């Protein structure tokens, strides 16, 4: 009883006094016998270490706890998980800075803002958000465009290149259209006022697919905050995790991070601690399945 209460943070001295146990006797007993609670903690910590390693050392206690309870079926309190991780020196990655806004075309005014910072939708392929990010390597910059479904935070289309010409966003949009095949005039595509999104080629691809264009206000990254948040996650968990030697090395890592980790496995607090793929599988009506 003293050992179990000590594991929960109670003072050994106070506990021994209340229960009428010699403190020295307790420590002698501890030196040779592990309580069931201590044995459970050892097993639990092994699972925690495995989950943390498989998350690419990014998960903090909330997602580790979700993986233990939702993924492995453990009945464990989140405070216990947090304490074990703290004592073992296991930490997740936490965002400390916000990604700045990218440059906008201040003369563009192609589409009205149909979103008005409200990214809540009832089903998949009702609202897509698109944006571009960049990151340096030793032999030049890598540019990535991504199309995010607001319903599940799933990346439905992406493109990577060593430049940010219009083809970058057209290719990302093309992948999204091919993968999801949205009903004509049923999906909104929201972007900023970047010159790539006001180009003739991008506008034609948008129109041919029957998508409805939307743009936030000029120079305000919060009007596309959902995809900005996605970039922040990628920046923290992948882009800033190491030095990248070549553009090919980073492009391959981005592809693998999106398709093998973010979409199918990474748990989101805003999705009830499900991954985008699992969230769609659990909540999407059959006639919307992809």
UniProtKB/TrEMBL annotation:
InterPro entries: HTH-like_dom (IPR025948), Integrase_cat-core (IPR001584), RNaseH-like_sf (IPR012337), RNaseH_sf (IPR036397), Transpos_IS3 (IPR048020), Transposase_IS3/IS150/IS904 (IPR050900). SUPFAM superfamilies: Ribonuclease H-like (SSF53098). Coiled coil: none annotated. Pfam families: HTH_21, rve, rve_2. It comes from the Bacteria. Residues 120-284 form the Integrase catalytic domain. Involved in the transposition of the insertion sequence. PANTHER family: TRANSPOSASE INSF FOR INSERTION SEQUENCE IS3B-RELATED (PTHR46889), TRANSPOSASE INSO FOR INSERTION SEQUENCE ELEMENT IS911B-RELATED (PTHR46889:SF4). This is IS3 family transposase.
